[in-house]
Write a structure and sequence with these properties.
This protein has one domain (about 5-65). About 55% of the residues lie in helices and about 0% in strands. It contains four helices and no strands.
Length: about 70
Amino acid sequence: MRAATEEESALTKTLTRSRNDRVIAGVCAGLADRFGLSPLTVRVLFVLSCLLPGPQFVIYIALWIIMPEKKD
């Protein structure tokens, strides 16, 4: 059996909200952890996406409700 690469392990992580690096609900930090990105990068992308029309806040609130908190 071969060892999982960093990319494969990032794709198999569970999507959970962060408890340690949260600003509002931990959604952006949880997404960053899941996809191997910086939480700051995900937050900046979210804020920039709010300049475009669309349901960004609705999606954020839905993820806040749906994503379980990370159990440390």
